[in-house]
Design goal:
Layout lengths: L11 H52 L16 E2 L5 E6 L7 E6 L1 H6 L5 E5 L4 E3 L8
Length: 137
């Protein structure tokens, strides 16, 4: 006569298979998550660059010149730090009739998004960056 025992719990092999599956899923999902976060942070920089460019144009309409001082645009600091703290925005190559706004990645964002550490926009609306895909996403 054969006695059948009720098995409670998992065997070691079942546990190792479950751990391996979780490890594989994590290895695939984590890089995608990091890319998503860096793109999300980059969109904040793009939004702020466009907003500040609009403020520069309004300042030009009022004074007939551009400014290098972010505080004159109503921003709290020069250079302006985005709300998340991931980007610093300041003017470069500024004259009375031209400007280039530059958003520079800071901290972890500079490491995670190394292909797009700087984003630029000029008075003509020309958007430039290290690679062409930085402004597309």
């Amino acid at each position: 006569m054969m006695i059948i025992k009720n098995q409670i719990g998992m065997t070691l092999i079942e546990l190792l298979i479950a751990v391996a599956i979780v490890g594989i899923l994590g290895a695939v999902a984590y890089p995608s998550y990091v890319e998503y976060v860096s793109q999300s942070n980059r969109s904040e920089a793009q939004r702020e660059l466009l907003r500040i460019a609009n403020k520069m144009e309004q300042y030009f309409v009022d004074t007939r010149r551009y400014t290098a001082d972010m505080k004159l645009l109503g921003l709290p600091a020069d250079p302006f730090i985005t709300e998340s703290g991931n980007y610093s925005i300041d003017t470069s190559a500024q004259t009375n009739t031209t400007y280039t706004l530059t958003a520079t990645a800071r901290g972890a964002q500079a490491t995670r998004d190394s292909d797009c550490t700087t984003l630029n926009i000029s008075e003509t609306g020309q958007k430039t960056a290290k690679t062409a895909t930085c402004w597309e996403k």
